[in-house]
């Protein structure tokens, strides 16, 4: 029901007919706007047969109430009405298909009834059964036609959503162009000169990486796996161009402080952790997890404190809040779905800007061309790749690949892959697959050209693999192989972007999730209070 409701919601976004008819479907466009060319067809009616369960199928044929719009271009309200009748027709047609099969089943039972056989010859029964077999075959064919009709309706819904994305990009570009030209139009207000229409602008991600917006920092960021932070160890990290160090206090809880001693600016991660305090290797000053200096050997203790960030531990990960706004009350959950076991947790430092890496992770259409030596070896190149998603969401599934994917703000990508054996895919959706691999990618913005990547891999099969010695190194080797296939391309993108090339110059339909991430990112950077795709 949720999927149907979502499809209905999408269908209301644009004036477009979902009806599959026996006539060829016709789609026309009006320059500068959206248009609909309505087409109807397919004759048929409700069977006259009645039975005890006929009331379930006694639904009026909606075609008798369809507004006369054939061959006309419709406005938004008229197209909305057409879409509503299209959905009613699909429901009515499906009921009639099922009803036909049930009535034919009753006829078969009647023909084979022992009492009826007493009054019929063998030849008569064979003739009736042959006729019923033919009718059943036609009924089953009609069911397959209905399935095809529903599939076509879903394809049209996906196409309509692509138009929604295009319109959204167009409107954002129009607003920007209006703002930049407002001063010029004011000074020439008395002139009545015709304006030529500008082509729709694509996303503009080009030139040197801009300074990080303060708004992007006001999120919880996972920065490390709990298993990597022992009681007597520390983890230096970079986040938003600043150096920090994470360690556990005397109570075992993690803390995150600036990786610079207040005395002589020595890196604290070169020191050690003593009794829940991090000790500077230069003169032995010691700091607690809240940044307060609690020990100054060889001199009088002064009231000194270095900056500390809100830091919490949840579900096997260490989180920090680098922004100036008060931290959000809850942390998002990044655990794999029920039934999965975590097999690998890997951390890498990559020489690319985190937005470019997210662009790559949110794109699956590149797999059969890029990952030919790893997981996509042997994959065929489909004629059409689509990402199907709700109109206001940052998650969905790939078609024809059995892969579900989600962008989780501010920098996480979660995916579930249906597999049968390494490098192979089965089924058309994850639900059709018997075994699955779940992945978590966290792309922490370390600096303008560096990303701290946290990777977690989970499986819902082969639980004994996690107990094999050195298996962690095997998983890391595989992960590095896949990542290296991407890195050579992303590094090339980054080099050209820094020299002025627009890496999002011409997005197409399978770029949908990446486009939505960039729209979300632009909204955050500009400080919008209500972020897109947040419902």
TrEMBL record:
Residues 122-149 form a coiled coil. Residues 176-188 have a biased composition (Low complexity). Pfam families: PaO (PF08417), Rieske (PF00355). It is found in: Plastid, Chloroplast. Residues 220-320 form the Rieske domain. GO terms for molecular function: 2 iron, 2 sulfur cluster binding; metal ion binding; oxidoreductase activity. It comes from the Eukaryota. Transmembrane segments: none annotated. The keyword Thylakoid does not apply. GO terms for cellular component: chloroplast. InterPro entries: ARHD_Rieske_2Fe_2S (IPR015881), Cholesterol_7-desaturase (IPR050584), PaO (IPR013626), Rieske_2Fe-2S (IPR017941), Rieske_2Fe-2S_sf (IPR036922). Keywords: 2Fe-2S, Chloroplast, Coiled coil, Iron, Iron-sulfur, Metal-binding, Oxidoreductase, Plastid, Transit peptide. CDD domains: Rieske_RO_Alpha_Cao. Residues 175-203 are annotated as: Disordered. PANTHER family: CHLOROPHYLLIDE A OXYGENASE, CHLOROPLASTIC, IRON-SULFUR DOMAIN CONTAINING PROTEIN. This is Rieske domain-containing protein. It comes from Solanum stoloniferum.
